[in-house]
Amino acid sequence: MDSSNHWYRHAHIWSQYCGLGFDYPPRINGVIQHGWTFVHGFGAGHEPPHGFTKYVWADVNRRRGQAVGWRDYYVTGAPMLYLDRITPHEPDAPEPEGTIWYPFHGTVDYEAVSGDHDRLIDEIKETETGPVTMCLYYVEYEIPAVRAKYEDAGFRVISHGTRGVKWTGGNPRFLSEQLGELRRHRRIASNRLSSAIFYGSSLGLQPAVYGDPMDLVGVKTGFNGTDLLEHTYPELHGRDIDARVAREVADVELGRDAMLSPEEMVLVLGWEQEWLMRREESA
């Protein structure tokens, strides 16, 4: 199984959804889209092997992929939508309040982000009226100087943890913790259009995309996607985005209309034998 299927425990979430348990998902002969992209469902340098199924969130990803000559697509809907479906709401949970903020991030191995954290903090304070939770990616969270800037600004600073490497490590509750945090907030914001913005919008949070967009170090001007995203999704940029419109776009980009039943998912992923064995054991 491709190790990226385990990064955010997408395979595990689907296994749980199908009644096969969370801890040991069966093998998948394919690659699951692990984050939102404005192209074919997969990031730079992560082209799935030829012949392996590309499990993408939405039909827009399939169309974009086929436009560049890729094949072997299957549209499933985003794992986060399934997680939301199978995760009950906390009884007596308080009313959502405040804003959860996800700054643009790189990865520890090959992408570093350069930006003005102080200016971003000023913009957040000018915009948000309630309490702010700053959710840093583990790369920035583990840099004391960066974390301290947001703590000193009076924000609650958290991280959902690491995604793991080569089937090992990582926070197995990464998406579960993210879902829990999203449900506790009224607004979601970022300085880049991202998976988190679409997740929050699909759950009914008021989204916002504003602030210093920051850049990946070494990326040529015009190739980092910032201007493209603003031109492609103008309705999803600003400090007070229409939540209804954002939810409609998020449902398209996350593939809500493509979601499968457990029985369909078992067939699509090639888990029939495991599913039948489990049913026989419980009979």
Encode the helix/strand succession as letters. HEEHEHEEHEHHEHEHEEHHHH
β-strand percent reads 5-15%
Average pLDDT taken over every residue: 88
What's the arrangement of strands in the largest beta sheet? Answer: 7-6-4-8-9
Q: Tell me the domain tally.
A: 2
The number of strands is: 10
- Overall SS class: alpha/beta
Quick take:
This protein has twelve helices and ten strands. It has about 280 residues and is α/β, with parallel strands linked by helices. Strands 7-6-4-8-9 form a five-stranded parallel β-sheet, with helices on both faces. Strands 1-2-3 form a three-stranded parallel β-sheet. Strands 5-10 form a two-stranded antiparallel ribbon.
Description:
This protein is α/β, with parallel strands linked by helices and 283 residues long. It folds into 2 domains: 104 residues, no CATH class; 156 residues, 3-Layer(aba) Sandwich (Rossmann fold), CATH 3.40.50. Helices cover 37% and strands 12% of the residues. The strands form 3 sheets. It has a 5-stranded parallel beta sheet, sandwiched between helices. Strands 1-2-3 form a 3-stranded parallel beta sheet. A two-stranded antiparallel sheet has the order 5-10. Helix 2 links the parallel strand 2 and strand 3. Helix 8 packs across helix 10. The longest helix has 12 residues.
